[in-house]
TrEMBL record:
Taxonomic lineage from the root: Archaea, Methanobacteriati, Methanobacteriota, Stenosarchaea group, Methanomicrobia
Record-linked InterPro entries: Fe-transptr_FeoA-like (IPR007167), FeoA-like (IPR053184), FeoA_core_dom (IPR038157), Transcriptional_repressor_C (IPR008988)
The Ferrous iron transporter FeoA-like domain, residue ranges: 1-71
Name of the protein in its database record: Ferrous iron transport protein A
Keywords: Iron
Organism: Methanoculleus submarinus
Lineage: superkingdom: Archaea
Keyword Cytoplasm (UniProt): no
Molecular function as annotated in GO: transition metal ion binding
Length: 72
């Protein structure tokens, strides 16, 4: 499932990032990489907001669609 499919307050683990090296590096520098656990704060409409540890990350919908997750 894609990151954009999560409802607010759902937790998920990142399974894969379907993007190039630049996108993967960009996300990794912000704490989002394969295997990390996140909590969706919003995302059904507009930008996707997630919490990773104590950090909040805002992603555009196009970028968020490239992130595959599995609910935990």
């Amino acid at each position: 499932m894609q990151l954009t499919d999560l409802f607010p307050n759902e937790r998920a683990r990142v399974v894969a990032i379907e993007g190039g090296q630049c996108l993967c590096q960009h996300l990794a520098l912000r704490g989002l990489a394969g295997g990390c656990t996140l909590t969706a704060l919003s995302g059904r409409f507009g930008p996707v907001v997630v919490r990773i540890s104590d950090e909040t990350l805002v992603l555009g919908r196009g970028m968020a669609r490239k992130i595959q997750v599995r609910k935990v």
